[in-house]
Design a protein that fits this description.
- Three copies of one chain form a homotrimer.
- With 348 residues, chain A is an alpha+beta fold.
- Chain A contains seven helices and twelve strands.
- In chain A, strands 1, 2, 3, 4, 5, 6, 7, 8, 9, 10, 11 and 12 form a twelve-stranded antiparallel β-sheet that branches.
- Chain A is globular, with a radius of gyration of 20 Å.
- The N and C termini of chain A lie far apart (71 Å).
- Chains B and C meet through helix 1, helix 2, helix 4, strand 7 and strand 8 of B and strand 2, helix 1 and helix 5 of C.
- Chains A, B, C: It comes from Sedimentitalea arenosa.
- Chains A, B, C: This is MaoC family dehydratase.
């Protein structure tokens, strides 16, 4: 071939390309509408009534049913992948996540991240990058923000290590700072239509719930879900991207599956408003059967009528294996896929 | 683990939990919009023009294209699963089904069932439960109703058998009671755009039609479809739910696939308005190739301009095997998946 | 069985059923809305900003984001299958394709084809049929038109060969005749949100771009995509339709996948406006990993503010194999799936 060949494609950023204070304006804003809403219900066994019925949402003081809170998370997250995690070795953690405004059909979401920490690893080959990401809608309102840190490869092993900056992150989002959607009220909440009678007062700290049901996941499903959020990480799509030919399932797919399964026992944990922490403990692959269990970590009151906050640990496992997170070595057991710590809103 | 564990999940009802006259208000109302409409066309080779084109529907006197009649059925049915068939051994039959009003994008559907019959089986382990289910929209109009009976396990084998009540069900919905959508007229029907020239008068009672085409079904597809209708029965999703590790395909998936395939020969059977009977004759599994044939069982006139009713038997088979339902033993042949008896509307 | 059996199904047209001048009014008009838009993003890794965000589209002078240009193509094409390619042996080529008006959510598309050429093959068993297909919206505006030719079987080998008519087709759509969507302007184009800085002036004729990423395709995905466009060709759905039991992936699925992958390097080639030529070089099957590369074939100016036209060759390959189309024998190499020649619009 004599034709000229050029390189116009995005190789992704490497560790030495990040400096504290950098602002990354992520590309490809996305308008989400009724189609994305229906697809969420097709991809996950989602049944929380507030996200299923306009009339139920109206009975809770909202104009109509917002998109699932995790749609906001996935779209905002997906936009950051080309700039944050294309060369990531691992997605290490989340903190200080808050949902600040519902996402309505017709909203357009975009994402902006600020680098808030960098720390080279002692092996000299990789480093940890901390970013605070904001998702904004077409009115420039922040619909959610969260901190995420990832391990990223260095391009040039000889590049000097930056001065380490590790942000001081809250272990838990202070419930007093949770944003309650404008107008939300559970004063007239219909427990029958919601599917379960259990209210905020019925849950005790330390209580554990086995969500019983399992879903065996397929390649086509997780790829369609991941594409829908415009997440482009190769490992999810290309059997040539990992040495063993498997396609790694996007961690957010496991989050959504586990959250949807948690309806059975937590049908009234209607809205997610805070993300305290999260670990993708082990890889999930097609053919795995995802089960889930939850633990009540804390409870808090809110100013909204009839609305309480509940802090939950949501654990996804491969197969039905409830209530044990770690082995004697202190590490996650091999069947644990996800350990997520979040705040939800529930009727008092 | 020292944490307190509780049971807040839904174990489903068992045979002894049903009594004639019980009213079950099913949970999780669902707003269906344009997304569900598009998904129906993605999941099934649906081509009936009235459900495909707003302009075609307007040419038939409707304000725009309603959601497929089977979307209404699947959503209404799906809501009943947690209360009716979570512990069901088998879905035994349908009767007296009528579509009473079209479902428009934006409608919210919910379901209510009344127990109209119970009869313990002679083995003492199971019983048959008959329910009449109504699907209602946000205006509290009934959009469809039907009777369904299922075989349900007993929780406690020592529970006393209830007095048997077996409802007297019509073998066929009287065509005089079929509900014709308000405004429907086939007086200006466009046979070219509909795809076939055959009108009501061209079909003869006893006539059989081989719909020719086949579709090989995949796990990802049937699970997505079943989830979309918020049907939560474990056997459809979890390879651990059945002894042989297979996932049983929701019977409604087979109904929709066969109905869509029947376009080829019945393109003008535009709307389903009555469900006379139905049997899921054999289980359908991923990898099966679904074919379909139909038989004209009856014909009737209606009051709407240019609109006739046609009673059809729709048979789905595994592989291409038309026109034989039962073996010499009187049982369904092993390749028969579905035997459905319904009324549709067709231009005169 | 004693019941009467009839043949009301569509056997498709054979070579001798086509005559130059025949007009085929294809059936089943289709209203496309927001659901189809979301599905496109789920099925393909599509990220061109103009089709992703209403606000981005408004920044380009459009009222909101139109459906992807290939949605128009697939829907218009799908309608023609029952009349043009049900008995086709091969889809041989495309020419003179132009997108004449954007398709907006809510539009209803239908297709009409005129036979513009017929030529029996020397084997006497098949012939080539040339059709010019128009896609029209509900206002009877032509949204796109293109020429396609297919090899079709004869029903009756003894039918006389028609006088051969081979239309004189342009090798390339004259860029002066490309239709620029009304109002389109790239004068205020936001390269950051679009995802790449490369403008029309940065691309050189002869330049080749490796789009890097690959997607391994699944049966469920290609069948859902193909059904969504109401394309009914058996070979895509039925493992019994081809001798080896494989399901052939619809060529348009490969086009959309490759076009979406080309975002990485051609993020600013926002809209497709012309189809010069196209060959489905080799069959694509589930399990194949699709990669893509492009070559800049030509460039042209337009009258719209800030808008240039770029002529691109888009090549899809099985596995990562850039920049070689043909072997020493002049035939497409076995890994080449698609060779498409099109015009796109790009900011100057």
């Amino acid at each position: 071939m004599t034709a000229q060949t050029t390189q116009k494609t995005n190789p992704g950023r490497f560790f030495e390309d990040y400096a504290v204070g950098d602002v990354l304006t992520h590309a490809v804003p996305r308008t989400v509408k009724m189609g994305e809403r229906a697809l969420y219900h097709m991809l996950y066994p989602a049944r929380h009534a507030l996200h299923s019925s306009d009339q139920f949402a109206q009975g809770c003081g909202l104009p109509f049913s917002p998109l699932d809170d995790l749609v906001a998370f996935h779209v905002v997250f997906g936009k950051t992948v080309p700039d944050v995690s294309l060369n990531a070795v691992a997605n290490l953690g989340y903190a200080e996540g808050r949902w600040l405004a519902p996402v309505w059909p017709g909203d357009t979401l975009r994402s902006v991240s600020e680098v808030i920490g960098v720390k080279q690893n002692s092996n000299g080959k990789t480093g940890v990058v901390y970013v605070r990401t904001k998702g904004l809608n077409q009115h420039d309102e922040t619909v959610m923000d969260y901190v995420r840190w990832v391990m990223v490869r260095k391009r040039d092993l000889d590049a000097p290590a930056p001065a380490p900056v590790v942000p001081d992150l809250a272990k838990v989002v202070d419930p007093a700072t949770l944003a309650i959607p404008k107008g939300l009220s559970f004063a007239e909440y219909d427990f029958t239509l919601a599917g379960e009678p259990h209210r905020w007062g019925d849950y005790q700290i330390g209580e554990q719930i086995d969500h019983v049901d399992g879903v065996t996941v397929e390649e086509a499903e997780h790829m369609m879900a991941t594409r829908l959020w415009q997440n482009t990480a190769k490992v999810h799509f290309d059997t040539g991207a990992r040495p063993d030919g498997t396609r790694l399932i996007y961690g957010g797919h496991v989050i959504s599956m586990a959250r949807a399964l948690s309806f059975n026992g937590l049908a009234n944990a209607q809205m997610i408003v805070g993300l305290n922490a999260g670990a993708h403990a082990n890889p999930c692959l097609a053919g795995d059967t995802i089960h889930a269990w939850s633990e009540v970590l804390d409870k808090a009151e809110t100013d909204a009528p009839g609305v309480g906050a509940i802090r939950l640990r949501l654990v996804a496992t491969k197969g039905h294996a409830p209530f044990v997170l770690r082995g004697e070595d202190g590490k996650y057991r091999s069947e644990v896929l996800l350990d997520l710590d979040y705040w939800a809103l529930m009727p008092l």
